[in-house]
Amino acid sequence: MGKNYYLLKCTAFLFLVVFLLSSCEKERDKYYDLPDWIRGNAWEIMEEEGNFSIFLKGIELCGYKDMVAGKGIITIFAPDDDAFKAYFQQNGISSIEDMDQEEILKLIGFHLVYYSYNKEMLLDYKPYGEVTSYRYRGIYNKFRTRSQDPFSYVVDENTEGNPTRKVYHRERYIPTFSSYFFVDFSMDANENYEFFFPKSQWPDVNNPVVNIANAQMVGDEIITNNGYLFQVDQVLIPLETMHTVLKENNDYSIFLSQYDRYMVLEYDPDLTASYGDNIYDSLFLIKHSSNLLNIASEWTTDQITSLATLASYTYWLFAPNNDAMNNFFSNNWGPGGYGTFDDVDILAMNRFLYGHSWNNDIQLFPEFITGNFLNTTSSSVGQIDFDPYDTDLHEITANGTLYGLKEPFESYYFKGALKPMYIYKNMRYFLWLVQRGSSTIELSIASTEGMSAFIPDNDLLTNPNGGYNGKYFVWEGEPESISDNKLMSYDVQTEESSNPTASEANRLLNNHVGYYMAQSNDGRYKAYRTLNSFQYLLMDTQDQRLMSTEIFNTGNNTDNIPVYERTQVQGEGLGTESFVLSKNNTGGGSLIGPELDSWFNALVFNDIYRYGESFDNGNGGIESPYTLFRSIISSSTDYLVEEPYFDFTLMSRTIVLVPTRQALENGMGTLIEMTPVEDGDSQDVVAAKKAYYNEYLKRYFVNVYSSGSLAVDYPFPGSVGAPQSMVTFYRRDDRSYQRFTLVDTGTGLQITDDKNNTVNVVGFFPNIYVDGAIYLIDGLLEIVE
Questions:
Q1: What is the mean pLDDT of residues 373-394?
Q2: What does DSSP say about strands 487-491 and 536-540: parallel, antiparallel, or unpaired?
C-alpha cells in the first residue's frame, strides 16, 4: 500500500504542475497577444488598402515579400499607385515589370528601412537614448535602407599589372528632414528644403512634420505587427554618391579627375567572407586617400555598429566647375611652372582638394551659408564664402551635401605665407619636407596673419654644399602617392639616406617661417623671429641675403649665405609675405639651421664675429669684438674666475652685455677694482679676490626669464616699446637683484644704470645662441649698493 500511495502522490503532483504551467502559458499569451487594433503585417495592410498594387508588385519582384509580410522588422515608406504612375510617366517607364531587375532592387529597396521607427523617432531620433542631452533635434536623420547598387568592376591603377577589382557597394541611407531641425536652427524650412528638392514641397502645417527625402508623409503612421508603415506622396528617388553625381556631369570632369588621382581600391575581408561568390572571390571598396573624403562610398564610416555616426555624419564637398579650375590653373600653377593639371605635384593638388572638402553632423542648407552660422560653416582650412543660390549644381547626395562652384575657394594653404610652395614647381621639394612633419603646424602657419615665409627652392634644398647639421636632401624620383616620399635626408658622415624625421622637418619649417621684428635705422637690415623659440633671421636688403644667427655669428664669410627674392605669388588677406631662397652666385647657400652653440662656449672658447661689422684690434688688424672681454673672464695669471664658469646662469636664458675694447680700455680702472693675484697671496685671499671678481661681473649678465617682455623676445631697435627692466644676476646688499633700464629710442637701444649713466647697444643685430645672446655696449655700467 505504501508503494501505491507514493505513486498516487507523484501522479497528483505531476497533474498539478501541468495545470499550473498551462494556466501560466495562457496568461503569458494574453500578455503578448497583439492588440485588436493592429491590423496585421505591412503586406496585409497595403493589400487591404487596395491602392499599393504597383509597390507590392515591386516588393515581390525584389524578393522582399516574406520580409514585408511579417518575417522581418521593418519601416516602410509606401507610395500609392498614383505616385508610381506619375513616376513612370516622368521617366518614360511603361510598368514596373519592364524595369531592369537591378533598378527595381535599387528603387524599391530605398523605401524599405532596417528596423522599426515611429514618427516621433523620425522627427528626432536619439541614438544614445533619452538619458543623453542633445543640442539640436533632428540631426540624426539618416536611416539604412535596402537600396543597393550591384557589383562594379574597376581597374586598379595603383597595383602592378592593373588588375580589375570587384567593387562592393553598400546599402544607401535615406535622409529625413524634421521640422524640429529647422526650428532649432531658426531657419525657413520651405526655402531650405525646397532648395534641394524643387519638385517637392514642405508641408504647410503647424504640427511637427517630417519629410522623407523628396516626399511628404500622407496621413499618420500605421502600426503593423512587424514595424511601421508610412504612406508618402511621391516615389522616393534613390540618392547617388557625390562621385556618381560628378561623374554624370561633364562640367566637373577636371575636379573629379584630379580627385581620382587619390582613389584607392581597398580589400575588405569581412565583406568578402559575407558576400563573395566563392572562396576565390575578393571584394573591394572604393576609397580616396590622404585625408580626402570618401566621396565614392555610400557610407560615411565603415563601422556598422556606429549608429550615431551613420545617422548624422555627412560630407560637404565644393567642386569648382571646369571653367573655375582652368582659371585657377592659368593664374597659379601655369605661371608656377606646371604644364597640365596632371603635372601638378600630387601633394600640392591634395592641399587644393582638401580645401574644398569638409565634414559635419548636418546637411549644409543654403541658409547656413548666407546666415550668421560662421561657426558651422568654417573649418580649419578656410571659410565657406560663396553664394549658394548662384550655383549650377547643388544636391543632397547619398553621402552628403554637394555644391558646384564658379570660383575655387581660397583656402589658407593658397592664401597664407606658404602659398608659393603649393604653386611653384621649383619649390615643391620643400612642401614634401613640410609634409614629413606636423600637418597641424603646416596649417597653423598657413592660416596665421602676419607670417613671413622663406622657402628654399629645389636646388638649394638639395645643394650638397649647403644643407645643415651635416645633412642635405636628395630627390629620388617622382612620388606615386602622398605616402611615397621621395625627398630623403642624406647624412654626409655615414653616407646613408633616410626619410626625414618629423622633428627634423618641423625644426626646418619653423626656422624658415617667422614674424617681422624690426628694421635698422639705415633701412638695410631687417630682423625676423622664427617659430623656433629664440631663433632669429637677419635680412640684408642691400645684398639680398638672408642668414640665420648661426651664419651671422661667423662674420663676413658669405659662402653659405643664400640669396632671396620676393615671390610673385603672395598670400592675400592675411598680411603675409613670401620669399624664395636660392643658391648664391658662387653656387653656395645653406638652409636656415638653428644655432646650436651656447653663448658660454662661443664667448670663452671661440672667436665670435658679426656679419657686416669689422673690429680693429688696435694694431691695424681685425679681431672679434669680444676678444678683450674674453681675456678678462678667462682663467689667466692676472684675472681668475672661479670654476665652474658662470654657474649662476645655469637653467636660465642669459643676455651678456659685453663692453667694447675701447670701453674696457678707457674704464679699466673702474672695472678692475682689485689687484691681480700675487704669488704671496694666501688661499683665503685668492678665494676672496675670485669671489669679488665673480660678483662684479654678474652685473653684465641679464636673466632673461626675470626680465618681463624679454622672456619672449630679444630686444631690437624699434621692437621694445616702453622702457623695460633688465634684471641682472648681481645681488645688492639687501639681496635684491640689480636692475638696469632698457630704452628703445626707435633708432637704437640704450641701457641706463643706477648712476644714470647711459650706454648704447652697438649695432642692430646681436650674437644669438641656443641659450642666450651677446650684446655689445659702448660703455661700462655702475651700480649703487
A1: 76
A2: unpaired
In the sheet that holds 210-212, the strands lie side by side as 142-144, 173-178, 210-212
The verdict on whether omega for the bond into residue 644 sits within 30 degrees of 0, i.e. cis, is yes
In the predicted model, is pLDDT for residue 637 greater than 50?
A: no
How many whole angstroms from its chain centre is CA 606?
43
* CA dist., res. 657 & res. 775, Å (int): 5
Residue 178 CB neighbour total at 10 angstroms = 22
Cell of 161: 599589372
Q: How confident is the model at residue 376 (pLDDT cuts 50, 70, 90)?
A: very low
Q: Contact, 287 vs 266, CB < 8 A?
A: yes
Q: Which residues contact 135 (CB under 8 A, 6 or more apart)?
A: none
- Three-state DSSP state, 26: helix
> In angstroms, how far apart are the furthest CA atoms of the chain?
142
Q: Which of 184-198, 572-586, 623-637 shows the lowest per-residue confidence on average (mean pLDDT)?
A: 623-637
Closest CA to 112 of 152, 167, 56: 56
* Amino acid at site 729: F
User: Strands across the sheet with 283-288, in order?
Assistant: 152-155, 164-167, 283-288, 263-267
The DSSP call for residue 616 is B
Query: Residue 385: which of 363, 365, 407 has the closest Cα?
Result: 407
Ramachandran angles phi, psi of 91, nearest 5°: -115, 10
Instruction: Indicate the residue type of 261.
Output: R
pLDDT of residue 98: 92
pTM, entire model: 0.86
pLDDT range class, residue 761, cuts 50, 70, 90: very high
Rounded (5°) CA angle 560-561-563: 135
Please check whether residue 551 is in contact with residue 611, taking contact to mean a CB–CB distance below 8 angstroms.
Answer: yes
Q: How far is residue 145's CA from residue 162's CA, in Å, rounded to a whole number? A: 34
More confident residue, 425 or 619: 425
CA 130, chain centre distance (Å): 34
What is the distance, to the nearest Å, from the Cα of residue 744 to the centroid of all Cα atoms in its chain? 39
Measured distance CA(591)–CA(463) in Å, rounded: 9
Grid coordinates standing for 392?
549650377
Cα 570 to Cα 467: distance, rounded to the nearest angstrom? 26
pLDDT tens sequence across 80-130: 999 999 999 999 999 999 999 999 999 999 999 999 999 999 999 998 887
Helix (H, G, I), strand (E, B) or coil at 287: strand
Q: Are 610 and 765 contacting, i.e. CB atoms less than 8 angstroms apart?
A: yes
Q: SS3 of 538, please? A: strand
223-232, 622-631, 637-646, 754-763: segment of lowest average pLDDT:
637-646
Q: Could you tell me the pLDDT band of residue 6, with boundaries at 50, 70 and 90?
A: very low
Q: How far apart are CA 65 and CA 76, in angstroms?
A: 12
Instruction: For residue 689, give the H/E element and its range.
Output: helix 683-697
**Interval 291-300: pLDDT, tens:** 899 999 999 9
Is residue 593 exposed (0-12), middle (13-18) or buried (19+ Cβ within 10 Å)?
buried
Cis peptide before 79 (omega within 30 of 0): no
DSSP run (H or E) holding 539: strand 536-540
Residues forming a β-bridge with 405: 320
C-alpha cell at 490: 642624406
pLDDT of res. 638: 41
Is residue 573 pLDDT above 80, yes or no? no
How many degrees, rounded to 5, is the angle at CA 431 between CA 428 and CA 432? 100
Alpha-helical segments (H) within 70-229:
81-91, 101-109, 119-123, 179-184, 189-196
**Is the Cα dihedral 468, 469, 471, 475 positive or negative?**
negative
Strands (E), 571-723: 577-582, 654-659, 701-703
Provide the CA 556 distance to its chain's centre, in angstroms.
41
- Listed residue (693, 657, 650, 663) closest to 675, CA to CA: 693
Model pLDDT for residues 543-562, shown as the tens digit of each residue: 999 998 888 888 767 778 89
